[in-house]
Write a structure and sequence with these properties.
Strand content: under 5%
Number of helices: 10
Number of strands: 0
Helix content: over 70%
Radius of gyration: 18 Å
Structural class: mainly alpha
Largest sheet: none
Mean pLDDT: 90
Low-confidence stretches: none
């Protein structure tokens, strides 16, 4: 039976296995950009379907890309944060029931409402990964969704484009933070090895 990890070790394991969320944020950014493009150039309904069903593919796509990059893409035995991650993920499709209701009331609220639901779901990621950057992401998405819903122009896809840019920017911020941490750990281990 696996021994439970200390929280800080479990968070470090999350960052290592999933590269600080880099791959997932990059993929979700592409999915939101695709949904915005489909909304603008094909139809709004097709764009909404692209976001919903594309988001459902996030986990398997992330796993595949991480494995291609040589990352473990799985947590070590004893890390109970995997269960928390799954619970957090299921808040989004449930929240999309409210996104649908908001869109029935005002069609241009689709992307802003989705931004609020998805942004709120990132709040627990601060604890999950031990990274404050997810708090910044949650704030930008939720505040952006509110502002676009209340004051935005009559452009259905605008929230999709905005969110895609935010996700992709954050992906590279997370990648940089994770690589810096890993370089620091490697140097620490090398220093400890030479001291022995």
């Amino acid at each position: 039976e696996a021994i439970a990890m200390h929280i800080s070790d479990a968070q470090r394991d999350m960052r290592s296995a999933f590269m600080g969320g880099f791959v997932a944020q990059l993929i979700i950014g592409v999915i939101w950009a695709a949904a915005a493009a489909v909304s603008a150039w094909i139809s709004e309904a097709a764009g909404m379907a692209t976001l919903f069903f594309g988001s459902a593919l996030l986990f398997p796509l992330t796993q595949g890309v991480l494995r291609l990059m040589g990352r473990p893409a799985t947590l070590r035995p004893g890390n109970s944060l995997g269960g928390l991650a799954m619970q957090i993920a299921f808040t989004v499709p449930i929240g999309f029931l409210l996104v649908g209701a908001a869109t029935l009331y005002e069609r241009n609220w689709f992307f802003p409402a989705a931004m609020i639901v998805v942004g709120a779901h990132y709040m627990p990621f601060i604890f999950l990964y031990g990274m404050w950057q997810f708090g910044a992401l949650a704030t930008v998405l939720v505040a952006g969704g509110v502002v676009l819903a209340l004051f935005g122009p009559d452009v259905f896809s605008l929230g999709g484009w905005f969110s895609a840019a935010v996700f992709i920017l954050l992906a590279f911020i997370l990648r940089g933070a994770t690589l810096r941490e890993e370089r620091g750990e490697a140097q620490g281990e090398a220093g400890a090895g030479s001291a022995e």
